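does this look right to u?? nickel (II) ion version
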Amino acid sequence: MARLARFSVSMDERLLDRFDRLIGRKGYQNRSEALRDLIRDRLVEEEWSGGEADVVGVVSLLYDHHTKGLVEALTGVQHDYGENVVSAIHVHLDHHNCFEALVVKGRAASIREMADRLGSLRGVKHTRLTFSSSGRDLP
Ligand code: NI
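got this back:
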């Protein structure tokens, strides 16, 4: 197992108080685990910002499947990034609305590009790219 390093942090009491209240609401038992998660979250964001890192994520899409040509366009874009789309879940929400969650992996820049192309299609009402990581470089 990797060695644990300990360090002390100085900060404004009011900031620490807000942090403690936040992590209390989130259910953390101590500051250390909360701080580790914050650091990991920032590192994952950094991986994505570079564009070249090998990442994992989820693209969610909400759209009206009656929009002319939309279903074909969505499928076409996903096939263009076939190596990045690992899995897709489709939920028929009601008569008009469909929700899809695409599990994606690969080069961050390619995934962003795909998410942008999907999100900008007419009839797509909402799209979100959620960042995660392969976990390989994230202790
Ligand atoms: Ni549907």
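The two ends are 11 Å apart (CA to CA). idk if thats expected tbh
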